[in-house]
Specification:
This protein is of the alpha/beta class and 366 residues long. It is built from twelve helices and 16 strands. The model has no long low-confidence stretch (mean pLDDT 97). Bound molecules: pyridoxal-5'-phosphate.
Length: 366
């Protein structure tokens, strides 16, 4: 599904040089590399401010806390996502409220709207997820949040670089969270994440929250955490990875175009990309008619890896038995995805030959 050794053979020289520069500088925590990376990331994203932190999960927690989410607050979100989205809400002491997805697998704003009109209890926050690298329609997202007075954190962990109607994901709301987990489109050599925002106040608060809630040395204004992006990761991200992000995304798009044009098995359907979305194809999902196990075994027998995103909905995870959560409606479409989805290999280091092998394995499954 990924090939980090091929990536290293391309970036290793620059990554080692970046690490050497950090070692020689003697600055290891919150130094010039983090600052420079934050500046370049914000520029790439066309948002004014970025704050680096320890992971995508932490970025979501920091974003929610910067917005003032507190114990007992309700947070509308999607059941079909990495469990980290739900964990971030729970880690703030808040209550996730799950609403169903649409035909693309992303939160369905229409059914959420119907449910919110009926809801008796106040929901104040919203964490939509730009799943699979697709962008949720930016205008609808904005109108929806306004109508229900929702303060929004966009989970952009899978969608860095994706746009909707030409606007980058994360720009429709108060704050965006992103992950640099190695498999993500901008993956570092370990764990990392960031929040992005237009607001100077939110950026300052996030910078404080990631660093023990300090506003100055030994002045702790907030109940913060230790979630700092390392100088080492920032240096490698800025010097070796971010300059390649555009090319990584282009390559993913080329692979996706071929899959969409050449996979012709009537038992495999590619869910539609949301209206206006220019996807970055973090994943390439197909919906399987028939036995998912048989399809995945067939792929494996042809030397093709596959995965499922996600086999169990967040509200159905064992961890949820210990906490309070709410569900709007039966989540039928999310369950359909959980039963039928298979992700095909897609990453910047796939060769044309490998892409052809995936296509022919898909087309030969009966
Ligand atoms: C990966 C991911 C996260 C969590 O990021 P980490 O860096 O692994 O903590 C959160 N949300 C989504 C949608 C993700 O894909």
């Amino acid at each position: 599904m990924n090939d980090f050794r091929r990536q290293w053979s391309e970036i290793g020289g620059q990554a080692l040089a970046a690490m050497g520069a950090v070692g020689r500088s003697g600055r290891l925590i919150l130094g010039p590399e983090v600052k420079a990376f934050e500046r370049d990331l914000a520029r790439f994203w066309r948002l004014p401010r970025a704050v680096g932190c320890g992971s995508g999960l932490d970025a979501l927690v920091i974003a929610l806390k910067a917005l003032g989410v507190k114990r007992g607050d309700r947070v509308l979100t999607t059941p079909l996502t990495a469990f980290a989205t739900t964990l971030a809400i729970l880690n703030c002491g808040a209550t996730p409220v799950f609403s169903d997805v649409d035909g693309s697998g992303l939160i369905d704003l229409e059914s959420a709207e119907r449910a919110l009109r009926r809801a008796r209890r106040r929901i104040r926050f919203f964490v939509p997820v730009h799943l699979y690298g697709h962008a949720i329609d930016v205008w609808r997202l904005r109108a929806f949040a306004r109508r229900f007075e929702l303060t929004t954190v966009e989970d952009c962990a899978q969608a860095i670089g994706a746009t909707s109607a030409g606007r980058p994901v994360g720009s429709a709301s108060e704050i965006a969270a992103v992950s640099f987990y190695p498999t993500k489109n901008l993956g570092c050599l370990g764990d990392g994440g960031a929040v992005l925002t237009r607001s100077a106040r939110l950026a300052e608060r996030a910078a404080s929250l990631r660093d023990y809630g300090q506003t100055a040395k030994y002045v702790h204004r907030f109940v913060g955490m230790n979630s700092r992006l390392d100088e080492l990761h920032a240096a490698v991200l800025r010097r070796a990875l971010l300059p390649r992000l555009g090319a990584f995304i282009e390559r993913r798009r080329r692979v996706a175009r071929r899959y969409r044009a050449e996979i012709r098995n009537p038992r495999l359907a590619v869910p539609p990309v949301p209206e206006g979305s220019r996807s970055v194809w973090h994943l390439f999902p197909v919906l399987v008619r028939g036995s998912r196990g048989s399809f995945q075994r067939h792929l494996a027998s042809r030397g093709v890896a596959s995965a499922v995103h996600y086999p169990v909905l967040a509200p159905d995870q064992g961890a949820m038995r210990a906490v309070h959560a709410e569900t709007l409606g039966p989540l039928d479409r999310a369950r359909f995805f959980a039963r039928r989805e298979v992700s095909l290999p897609i990453h910047p280091y796939l060769t044309d030959r490998e892409v052809e092998r995936v296509i022919s394995a898909c087309n030969s499954w009966t």
